[in-house]
Amino acid sequence: MIGLMGGTFSPIHYGHLLMCEHIWEEFQLEKIIFMPAKIPPHKAGAQVAGQQDRMEMVRLAIMDNPHFEVSDLEMQREGPSYTVDTLTTLKELYGPKQEFGLIIGADSLVQLESWREPERILALAALIVASRPDTLESSVIDASDKLREKYGARILHSKHLAMNYSSTEIRERVKKGQTIKYFVPPAVEAYIYEKGLYK
Ligand code: ATP
Ligand code: MG
């Protein structure tokens, strides 16, 4: 199974990276593809860095990891990034036998039904769900049960305990001139300052 890790990654941080490394190990994934979103349908209007910057920060963050990869599939495609389209394209590229596991945080799981074509998403990929400190365990169980019943979703729950990091917090810290050391890899930190992002 190949893991697919979508996100805005504005910026990518150790919460994303450590979670993916754990999940790679826990479910013995072949590799994980990081997929920075072009115009994130849920986030239009929020403060996000430009596409090239977000892409470059992901590239810098995963450079030293042989089983992590970054794809510009969503950034190259016209219009907003829908997971259902991305999975369809990946299935075409890798062949119908290749299994995919869509890695999502618990906060995204509880919203999954509001995504475009949830039924097709769940037919194309299994879900690999990581808990986040700010999402109640009971709401994750409820959402999982519902998706299994309604769509026959295949859902794997990671034992990894997410770190309480978010890109939002990192952007705010940069804005206030606070440290982001140990929030993001050193190369990403240097890139943010060099480009004057999130000021
Ligand atoms: P923002 O604060 O801008 O929403 P974010 O930190 O939530 O950013 P995203 O790019 O929105 O990062 O997240 C991409 C995916 O990573 C989502 O599925 C989200 O649930 C998950 N994720 C984000 N932060 C963490 C974390 N600290 N631990 C585990 N998963 C996370
Ligand atoms: Mg988020």
3D architecture notes:
The protein is of the alpha/beta class. It has one domain: 3-Layer(aba) Sandwich (Rossmann fold), CATH 3.40.50.620. The protein has helices at residues 14-26, 51-62, 73-76, 83-94, 106-109, 118-124, 137-151, 167-176, 186-195; strands at residues 2-7, 31-36, 68-70, 100-105, 126-131, 155-161. Strands 3-2-1-4-5-6 form a six-stranded parallel sheet, sandwiched between helices. Strand 1, helix 1 (14-26) and strand 2 (31-36) form a beta-alpha-beta unit. Adenosine-5'-triphosphate is lined by residues 7-10, 15-16, 19, 104-105, 107-108, 130, 132, 162-163, 165-168.
Write the topology of this structure:
Layout: E1 2-7, H1 14-26, E2 31-36, H2 51-62, E3 68-70, H3 73-76, H4 83-94, E4 100-105, H5 106-109, H6 118-124, E5 126-131, H7 137-151, E6 155-161, H8 167-176, H9 186-195
Parallel strand pairs: 1-2, 1-4, 2-3, 4-5, 5-6
The structure holds adenosine-5'-triphosphate and magnesium ion (MG).
Adenosine-5'-triphosphate binds next to helix 1, strand 4, helix 5 and helix 8.
